[in-house]
Fold these 4 entries.
Entry 1:
Amino acid sequence: MRDIKKIYSELLNTHGYQGWWPIAGKYHPNDYSYPKNEKQRFEICVGAILTQNTAWKNVEKALFTLRKEKILDAKKILDTDDERLKGCIRPAGYFNQKARKLKEFSKFYISLDGRKPTREQLLSVWGVGKETADSILLYAYHEPIFVVDAYTRRLLLQKKIIAVSESYDEIQAFFHKRLKKDHKKFNEFHALIVERGKTR
DNA sequence: AGCCAGGCTACCG
DNA sequence: CGGTAGCATGGC
């Protein structure tokens, strides 16, 4: 039996600490203390939405522009004209949809008033699906919840740990069942799976 | 020069 | 329910 803990250490040996979630373009290997403030927390949420089916490289361009234009903020995004917002995030693709998603999420984020959202609440927001919700919970709120993405499925299939495409929730339960619920470990594991997926 | 990226919604049978 | 078209740009 191929233990997923063994897969984790192999990935770590091969790729090293990934330093997720990147804040303002910077990674911070083996330091899981981010976000350090609300501003950074919101940036993670925006990045999680913008990176939907999109290369992170393109998301960075959008984040850079939002930062430069000083609208990387929930209230500012809501106050920004749709066309201007679309222009800022254009490199991240699907800009019509994503502009709407950012506004819907900003409204939701403000309504939280500093409280931590539940998974159910996140999923009720238009444009937030399971992976995005779990990424936000794990990386922005340090909740020990495993993020499942296309790379995770591919990895489990390649290692013949699963037969054919199981559901998101089943795969997530698989990890939850076998790993201690530690947000740092979940953070690193998911980041490593993505890194492996990118470099094939 | 295609293919594909750190998905989601809407709609179909 | 599961399956899939459409969304869009930029990197390799």
Entry 2:
Amino acid sequence: MVRKKVKSAVPDTANDSALRELVGYNLKRAYMTVRDDFVVTLEKFDLRVTTFSALVLIVDRPDMTQSQLAEALSIERSGVVLIVDELENRELINRNKVEGDRRTYALRATLSGIRFCEKVTAAAQAHEERVLKNLNKKQRTALVEILNLIEAGGSS
Amino acid sequence: MVRKKVKSAVPDTANDSALRELVGYNLKRAYMTVRDDFVVTLEKFDLRVTTFSALVLIVDRPDMTQSQLAEALSIERSGVVLIVDELENRELINRNKVEGDRRTYALRATLSGIRFCEKVTAAAQAHEERVLKNLNKKQRTALVEILNLIEAGGSS
DNA sequence: TATTGTTATACTCTATAACTATA
DNA sequence: TATAGTTATAGAGTATAACAATA
């Protein structure tokens, strides 16, 4: 049977006006919107968001260690192992020996890793255009500035 | 041994400048900052974020159904069952019979549920003050406006 | 046939803890 | 003693799929 309201005091949409009073709720909703589209974007490259971030960080900063990567990604070292394993198995990065400290690896992107990263980054930029199409340049700048103020407040 | 750099071309902090170019990355970082503090805030009430949202929605809109709640929370109906179970076990809400459709429940907060919700909401507002302390009134308004533009773009 | 709520199960992501090898 | 990386395991949170009751 098709849903049919005959008479009722109850509307059939939720009322989230109280939650909307919280900035955090609006932040979460927008974040989810962006993330959902980004996840779909990265699926074409068989990448998860964190794996993409890891690759970009390694490309951007050759010879970083796994512990530094864990710190940057805000995850545990044990989680980094799996991510680095995958990137290495796909020959996008290498674990290189470090002279003077045989405990650590210097992570470095391969040539194909760098090229791959460039392609994915282009797709990420297209994703951003898509998902931020309602915002003009000034709004995007203002948004990032405010977001960074929030992030800066978290550590104080 | 204390970590001691003698000489090295490699800085010991990560470089996320490439990721910072993506609005989504800044959005995620700020979201994580806010969420982490909110999770701690809600722990005192033995609530998870989604359970809190569910309670507020039910208080705000008496007699909504579980399916409507699932839609509003953007989760599956099966997940709502567990959340409603918990809220009901804690006597914060009731599952009431609906005349004319014996399949559905009308969810309604109890008196103590409403009072509890008010207390948690006050704590949530204090949390927001804390986490948004770096933003003035104008910035908060601008932020929500821009976030809502992003969210609106997701459905188009 | 379609929908609501339910259950059982599986999956994704991450944390925790214990371990090794090195420092 | 402390640190880097590793492994095994567990937990949180959610989705999927199948089901009974009802529409």
Entry 3:
Amino acid sequence: MPELPEVETIARGLAPRVTDRSIVAVVHLDWERMVETPAPPDFSRLLAGRHIAGTARRAKWLLLPLDAGWTLALHLRMSGRVGVSDAPPLDDPHTHLVLALDNGTTLWLRDPRKFGRARLLDAAGMAQLDAAHGPEPLDPAFTNECLARLLRRHRQRLKPLLLNQRVIAGLGNIYVDESLWHARLHPQRAAESLSAGECARLHAAIRHVLQRAIEHEGSTLRDYRTSSGSSGSNQHFFAVYQRSGQPCPACGTPIERMVVAQRGTHFCPRCQPACSNTA
DNA sequence: CATTACCTGCAA
DNA sequence: TTGCAGGTAATG
């Protein structure tokens, strides 16, 4: 579920409640496959006593930088949620990881679909995670020219290209569809076929769409909640996502849905015309 | 590039 | 009952 804006919102909301706390212990872990590294006994042993320096985000990973060079990295995949509460939510069958903090609160991860993942990384592991992802689209260093270079380098259609975390970090199905609509580009356009002007439109669209979503604390379709449990409101600003049959906000043409790269894809057939090099 | 797998809940 | 879902990795 959570894409860049949702994870960013969670990281910001979590910060005041975990920064400068210490982890007393892992008090609950009932889905060991969630822990990718190190093996769960070491994961729990190494987390105990760690100091939490703050919160951060890389791509769709929620990061808790700890002391001694460690970082706790959490990926919420489709249905994961994290929060801090006074009482451990141990009666909930979907809460799979609970950390006790030194002020008596608990940091928990809940995930009905069990796709979420946790890693405890040393500096080298964190560097690897970083290197496995493309540039952050909201980083000032991500210029129009950076995007142009990415598009030139990959012979792929726009939709799968933008979903690929190794190419550009943090976009998922929602924000790819929304960005392509704002840029007036068909999801199946070949990446290397974009003109300079189209590339500039895509660059501006991606940043606009992500920034606005963060301002609205993310998009809640079903599972996503902020770290305090509230819904995001960005879903009210979708132009195309899950709006098939409804009028395009720009031209009134009914939004269409098709499958591209195995993903439901929403677009306006008039504003985002197919080109000769799309099919 | 496409398909499958990982899981569960929910709507059709 | 079937199909679908915001993500990703592994496999033909």
Entry 4:
Amino acid sequence: MPELPEVEHTRRNLVRWMKGARIAEVTATDARIAKPSPRAFVKALTGRVVTAIDRKGKWLRLLLDDGTRVFGHLGMTGWFEQAGPEPLRFERVGFVLAKKKKRVAYVDSRRWGRLEIARADVAGWTALGPDPLADGIDRALLATKLARRKKTSVKEALMDQKVLAGVGNIQAIEALWKAKIDPRSRAGAMTAKDVAAIAEALKWTIARTLADLAKGDAGAENPFVIYGRKGTPCRRCKTLLVRADLGGRTTTWCPGCQALKR
DNA sequence: ATTATTGTTGGTAG
DNA sequence: TCTACCAACAATAA
């Protein structure tokens, strides 16, 4: 369940569960997930100490005491959780840690995520644009990147990981509502004022989602203002929210108070 | 049975 | 090199 806030939440959990710990045992059998191969993955991690856990956008990076790096992406349905001795449903990778009672399990029903070992940063990591949480949002740079997009919508542009790392479907939807901009607006039509509003809105939705995750009431109802609320009244102007496909992704917005700019 | 799903990647074309 | 578009990947939940 991962966009930037969920991945950051995951990172904070992993810091508590794994940082400084020695990996006593690794289980991995799924070649789609453990790269370059489950066997190489197990061999590289067994006996190592996790020295740092970083995040950029939706990617995680674990540093080990021998210089090995483990890059993790949760795909659409991946997450980490603590587990007892029995494998969890859809568990794909498991870590037994020395001096720790609980294992750490990577669970992923759809298997779109992956965990990959490397000796240096991989392309998926280095190609990312700035991270809104860690790096802040440079408005001039964001304006330049949006201006380059002559045809695509502002929402699709925001979801481009080279523009800003970590913004996904939900965060883009929530931010554009907050910024009062119709998601179908052309990226190239954004004014400096629009860009400033988007930057503020992204900070707002990321902080808000992160705070919800920290409360830890998983399984609670939809915590978002706009996402998944088609047909309900806009919290701001009471117009009923609408939904449509944009670049193949479900998009919800308020036709009453989000201005369309062409 | 049908529909929808919080994401990336690789191909093609321009 | 960069943008734009599309299909593919896979398995669940409503």
